[in-house]
Amino acid sequence: GLSQYSSDPRTEWDLSAYSTREQVLEAVRSLRYKGGNTFTGLALTHVLEQNLKPDAGARLEAEKLVILLTDGKSQDDANLAAQTLKNLGIEIFAIGVKNADEAELRQVASEPLELTVYNVLDFPLLSSLVGKLTRVLCTRIRERSHKETADTPASTGPQLSPTDLKISAVTSKSMHLAWSPPLRPPKKYRVVYYPSKGGTPREVVLEGAASSVQLSNLTSHTEYAVSVMPVYDSAAGDTLRGVTSTLPLSSPRSLRVSELSHNSLRLSWKAAQGATHYLVLCSAAPDGAED
């Protein structure tokens, strides 16, 4: 996910917006730089309240990391906002460019500062940080995930995880999902579905007593990936996943032409199931074509 900020933070895309590396890279290439003021505290609050919510794609069981990139000193209290995030277990990496205040970067960032604070003199030099920052981020995620696993009771298995996902009643614009619930009912289910070849994910949140859902307003003749995740107070069970395609829209058949005259003709056809209107296009045939 990515947000830009000046005096008014703006979400460019949510965590759930893209599902492939290529889509993310294309979004980065298309990004327009937002100039203006430097209200870093407001931006961190925006990330917490808008970008790290389940409906923006933040998964309950995932480690939460924020990378702050700034080229100036904050015009509001960045430290207070950063402390709020850190108190919630969100780790902050601070990267300064040009006129960034290193003392402020060190206040905002999480410990240990030798791994979470970076500062370069100009924007082209950011590329020199990519390799190290990638390794550090991946290592921190692994370390924190292992710690959570050690501190938390096992979150998978038949006790916490639904089984046997069935997809049925598939039409051109809907499908029905059903599953066998786990032994211990979850607090809720998150059902996420999106076109598997690229598209914005949509989400339905269900009460823990549910074991089925109807997905509607789908696109015809499209392969959809679906997932069903059980969510508990302090853990998440295994996610059920499936893939299926919606049906193509039915077509009219057996077109016939009759009652020809010098300036009119009648068309008739067998109806297309579910059609509410028809669009009939007529144009003169090109020279030399059969009448």
UniProtKB/TrEMBL annotation:
**Where does the record place a coiled coil?**
none
Indicate yes or no for the key word Secreted. yes
A Pfam family of the record is VWA
Q: Which SMART domains match?
A: FN3, VWA
Q: Where in the cell is it found?
A: Secreted, Extracellular space, Extracellular matrix
Q: Which UniProt keywords apply?
A: Extracellular matrix, Secreted
Q: Which residues form the Fibronectin type-III domain?
A: 161-250
Organism domain of life: Eukaryota
* SUPFAM superfamilies cross-referenced by the UniProt entry: Fibronectin type III, vWA-like
**Record domain VWFA: where:** 1-133
Q: Which InterPro entries match?
A: ECM_Assembly_Org, FN3_dom, FN3_sf, Ig-like_fold, VWF_A, vWFA_dom_sf
Q: What is this protein called?
A: COKA1 protein
What is the species of this protein? Origma solitaria
What gene is it encoded by? Answer: Col20a1
